[in-house]
Every structure is written in C-alpha cells, then in structure tokens.
Design brief:
Elements (H helix, E strand, L loop, with lengths): L2 H14 L12 H10 L5 H11 L6 H7 L1 H8 L5 H19 L7 H5 L6 H11 L9 H10 L7 H11 L2 H17 L26
Helix pairs in contact: 1-11, 2-8, 4-6, 5-6, 9-10, 9-11
Length: about 210
C-alpha cells in the first residue's frame, strides 16, 4: 500500500468521525488507567457499569487503597477476571502512591512497571490521557491493519512500528481510535461489513464481503 492511499484512508476516517475517542468513561488519567486495567477480556460497556459504581466512591490511588481489596472486588465483581484485576489494581495504586506521589507517570518505562500494564495499555494512557501520538495495537487494530494492507505484521509490535512509520503525522494522534472503532463496528473479525465501509475501495483485502 502506498502513501497516497494511506493518507486517503485516514482522511476518510477523520471525515466520518472527526473527534474519535475511547468508549471507556474517565475524567482523570488515573480513572483511565483503572478502566483500561479492568477492560482486558471485558467489554467497555461492562467496565463502564462497574466504574460508575466505583469512581464516585474511590477514584484515586489512595482512595482505592483505603477501599481495600475486598471492597474493590465488591465494586468490580461483574467484570470477568475481577479477582486478578483487583489485585493488580491494588498493587498499581500502592506503587503510584509510594513512588509517583499518587499521579500516573507519563513515561512508557514507568507505566510498564505497573502490575497489569503492558505495552498496549501504556500506549493507551500515553495517547488518550497525555496526548502523545502513540498507537496501541489490540486485536481490532491488528486485524484491520493486516486485512486492509495498511500495516502488515506477524505480531502487534511489528504492526505498531509499521503504523508509526506509515501513518501520516497529521493523523497519528487519533489513528488508534479510528482503527479500533473501525475494527469494532465495521471490519468485524468473522464477517466484515465491506458494503458499508467508507474505505472499501482503498482496502486491499482480497475476500471482501458484500452486503
């Protein structure tokens, strides 16, 4: 795929959705971090329901610690893997309080040192909370990038590096959100909705599904 086609893909995605953002509900960097930690193998809708109960009572690292592990589990027990997630979030809160003054760090190294935080989660925080032009590659973005020909790679790190290299600078800040939303609602895993896709004519997927 050439640079002109990539530019047109993102121009159309921007026209279709000028201000894309995460579907997780958050108002502070810590709320976003907590929500992303809870979102692994869970839907954003499910996480939002849980954090709607949690955040009014505890939405800072110190408040989560004061809530206690059992109290935290009670608030998030509707989410899959909530026991492990609660333990990771408690450990993360302890590190944030002890090492970072209760604030979410702004570097990848410090973020990835937090329990339950990997490269993808760190990229989400850096991009969405702090405005850095990172691209967090999840299963949706991995699929869309490979299927369309936008950035082919055998693993998420390779796809991320290719996207950072090939996505035009003017689109880089929002590329993560455009691609994840496109994968979530249009370029579906089992049956992509090619007939209603705004970039169908630019996509290089050979087995397009017409509606």
């Amino acid at each position: 795929m050439n640079a002109q086609k990539r530019h047109e893909i993102f121009a159309r995605l921007r026209e279709h959705n000028p201000e894309p953002t995460t579907e997780l509900h958050w108002s502070t960097p810590f709320e976003l971090l907590a929500a992303v930690l809870l979102s692994a193998q869970a839907t954003d809708v499910g996480v939002n329901k849980a954090t709607a109960r949690l955040f009014p009572e505890a939405n800072t690292p110190q408040a989560i610690l004061e809530l206690g592990l059992d109290g935290l589990k009670e608030h998030i027990k509707t989410i899959g893997l909530y026991n492990t997630k609660a333990e990771n979030l408690m450990k993360t809160c302890r590190i944030l309080v002890d090492r970072h003054g209760g604030e979410v760090p702004r570097t990848r190294k410090a973020l990835e040192a937090l329990p339950g935080v990997g490269r993808k989660t760190a990229n989400v925080i850096l991009n969405t909370a702090f405005g850095q032009p990172t691209i967090a590659v999840d299963t949706h973005i991995f699929r869309v990038s490979n299927r369309t020909g936008l950035a082919k790679g055998k693993d998420v790190v390779e796809v991320e590096k290719k996207l950072l290299r090939h996505v035009p600078r003017e689109f880089r800040q929002d590329a993560h959100h455009w691609l994840i939303l496109h994968g979530r609602y249009t370029c579906l895993a089992r049956k992509p909705r090619c007939g209603s896709c705004v970039i169908e004519d630019l996509c290089e997927y050979p087995d397009k599904v017409e509606l």
